[in-house]
Design goal:
379 residues, mainly alpha, ABC transporter involved in vitamin B12 uptake, BtuC, two-stranded antiparallel sheet, globular
Length: 379
């Protein structure tokens, strides 16, 4: 009896310890994610990392991607010559007739790629710029970056010759317009409407310079520069398009690396600095990305500035208000650009309406909606 007592006591103690550790393990395993998120456990080198996925943002991005795929298929099928989905698919994979293959590979597919790349670049640039300025109206088109890039691109055609690469000069023009706007507004991250007014003024000056250059050259040279003044996806330079596609991919990756800092940057600088964010460095990276993407998109399609306003707003409306919708903005911008280009090709076929005019017609009501719609509060 005496020999069994210690044994029984020890057994109870072991049972109590094992039960306590089991409870702790069970509590650690049942860590509930915040509301509206999925928690994905990632085993890593003896430890466990967790990835939080915003459910609403994920569903919104998948929906935008699906809509873009459907619209892209329609863009390949529809036009002045209509192809069936089967004929388009066969031509896409090199099994159709010579005429169908020429129509898909030489005309419609490059145009679709240009629409996706430029729309994504414009919208991502707009999302970054809106976050920097903490103002939904602070897009590259409104604050003069588009006009600066356009003016320098047109100058390369009408004054200096095409051989001097409109994309390179568009980048210089966008950087010049950005420096002037931020300098007149008082620095990077300026709040209020002073930033918007300064950008409108800078854009007006560059727009007037563009019109002056076009008015002083012969009609053939002016026609060569015309696509950079209204926005068009017709007969785009393949080299400029490839550069934009690679730059957009790099821009998405880099913007995702600073996504957490951008989320905090929506608040005041003191709050962001208190949370350990290097405010100046983050602003500099976001500004360089925004200016570069805008300039490269203008070099391909011209100033289609309203996409930078519509794309981020659409993504923000569909996804969660808790974060900055970088990927969603790029997808929404591509969707807007492709749909506007398709509408421009079909509305008055066989005549074509440039995509910049279509987006300008759509952008006016959207701008009014943004101004009149109350700001969503983060739950």
């Amino acid at each position: 009896m005496d020999t069994s007592s210690p044994a029984s006591t020890t057994g109870l103690g072991d049972l109590s310890d094992s039960g306590s550790s089991a409870d702790h393990r069970q509590q650690a395993d049942v860590i509930r994610p915040p509301a509206g998120h999925w928690r994905l456990a990632l085993p890593m080198a003896g430890n466990e990392a967790a990835l939080l996925i915003d459910r609403r943002a994920l569903v919104a991005n998948l929906g935008l991607l699906l809509a873009l795929l459907i619209l892209g298929a329609l863009s390949l099928c529809l036009g002045s010559v209509t192809l069936s989905p089967l004929a388009s698919a066969r031509a896409l994979f090199g099994q159709g007739s010579a005429m169908d293959s020429f129509l898909i590979h030489e005309l419609r597919l490059p145009r679709l790629a240009a629409g996706i790349a430029t729309g994504g670049a414009f919208a991502l640039s707009g999302c970054l710029m809106q976050t920097l300025a903490r103002n939904r109206l602070a897009t590259p088109g409104i604050i003069g970056i588009d006009n600066g890039a356009t003016a320098f691109a047109v100058a390369s055609v009408v004054g200096l010759g095409v051989s001097l690469a409109p994309p390179a000069l568009a980048l210089v023009g966008a950087a010049t317009a950005t420096a002037l706007t931020f300098g007149l507004a008082g620095g990077i991250g300026t709040r209020g409407y002073r930033f918007i007014v300064a950008g409108i003024g800078v854009g007006a000056v560059f727009g007037a310079l563009t019109q002056l250059m076009l008015a002083r050259v012969d009609i053939d040279t002016a026609n060569a520069a015309y696509p950079w003044t209204v926005g068009s996806l017709n007969a785009r330079d393949p080299v400029s398009l490839k550069v934009l596609e690679v730059s957009l991919l790099i821009g998405l990756l880099l913007s995702r690396r600073i996504a957490q800092a951008l989320n905090v940057l929506r608040f005041s600088d003191s709050v962001a600095a208190g949370l350990g964010i290097q405010v100046t460095r983050c602003r500099r990276w976001a500004l360089m990305l925004s200016v570069s993407l805008t300039a490269l998109a203008v070099s391909v399609a011209g100033p289609v500035g309203m996409v930078a306003l519509i794309g981020p707003e659409l993504a923000r409306h569909l996804s969660s208000p808790r974060g900055v919708p970088l990927v969603g903005s790029a997808l929404a911008g591509a969707l807007v650009m492709v749909s506007a280009d398709l509408a421009g090709r079909l509305m008055l076929a066989p005549l074509e309406i440039p995509v910049g005019i279509v987006t300008a017609v759509i952008g006016g009501p959207v701008l009014l909606w943004i101004l009149l719609r109350p700001t969503r509060k983060v739950p």
